[in-house]
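Notes continue from the previous slide.

Worked example: a multi-chain complex. Inputs as given:
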Amino acid sequence: MRQSQLFTKTRKEAPKDEVSKNAELLIRGGFVHKEMAGVYSYLPLGLRVIKNIEQIIREEMNEIGGIEMKTSILQNKEIWEKTNRWDDAVVDNWFKSKLKNGGEVGLSFTNEEAYSNILKQYVSSYKDLPVYPYDFKEIFRNEVRTKSGIMRGREFYWKALYSFSKDESEHNAFYEKAKVAYQNIFKRVGIGHLTYETFASGGVFSKFSHEFQTVTPVGEDTIYLDEKSGVAINKEVLNDEVLKSLGLDREKLVEQKAIEVGNIFSLGTRFAEPFDLNYKNENGEEQLVIMGSYGIGLGRLMGTIVEVLSDENGIVWPKSIAPFRAHLVLLGSNDEAKDLAEKTYKKLIQEGIEVFFDDRDVRAGEKFADSDLIGIPTRIIVGDKTVENSSFEIKDRASGEVSQKTLEELISELK
RNA sequence: CGGGGCGUAGUAUAGUGGUAGUAUACUUGCUUUGGGAGCAUGUGGUCCGAGUUCGAUUCUCGGCGCCCCGACCA
């Protein structure tokens, strides 16, 4: 993409109503636009990052048997009444709306009801199980107080997978696979070294759920981390009995602030019962399906990555999710340099490399500052010097390291 | 949902019961050209409503919106 064609611009200053680093940098860089409290639009650069994160999650979900679909945003009140979650006294942050004919609809708040209801129609035999459908979708929650930039909003984009298993052991086996998939995801998006699988409250059907908590001072949650084993416990479930059952020593735990970037939950028959979601086993006996839920908020994940990986000059995107792999920066206006930059741009595209081409007629300082802020991993500088040397000046965003590379070397590195 | 703070140009800020200022961004021109360059030039603003007043951006009330702390967070 040519930078001259991008309508967004960087800003030197963040709006005063944003105090969190993630929102400041994402707004300054032109990744997101704030519509209202807790509601953000994704601008071209931001969408590219979200799409990259989405693809990594998709690959990992598919790897463990996930099958992608899409449930509706408008929700039928009836299915929520089955689980007693329609009443505002039970779920107080619904967004609801009226139908012209007098009925009511809800805006998707979470997906358990939708999935249970759909799967009921297709699951009737042990031969139909297990299944692991998931979707990426917008979720709406009428939060009384939004906070922390894009980390906690009224509208957000998430991935939710639901597991439908025949019995506990089948469920548990998948649950363990999901943990690994989640760890892979957080590794691949660049925050694996800061993200811990954390014991959290489990509800009625299991002792614990598991959260994936990324350690950062701006986190909303407090976790207790055993640094040696990497085991963490959410403060909400920390007590002597739990410590004992997990074999942890309170003295060795370190208190940390963290952001919950994902969570997985055993649901047991909480939803199967109200929906009569059951199947016939080999003996023709009716059995309830065992469910689990597995969620990741993509916007929150993007915000977390910005929080933990940015520096004083701007965002430092990991290669895996950067809006572009390389930032080609043309300096100066002489025809030779321009020609070389144009040729290089076309060549890189031909080679399948995602490149952002700063072809604007602005000063070098501004281009460098923008490039730092936007945070594309590899910067390729084309200027008078480059024309003379027939090699490119390369700057690595994360390390700041500068090197010279030929076009061939560059292409093989970027591929 | 309790408490606190705040609404002035695209953005960041100053100020005033009587013509609203600065920076930046934007227009145009000249000079510049490897870390947000300089000079000149032009455009653009008091959240909404009511009240007090000769006159309100300023004071009062109401509304709307935003931020922060706490509670909540399936």
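Summary box: Chain A has a mean pLDDT of 94. Chain A has twelve helices and 21 strands.
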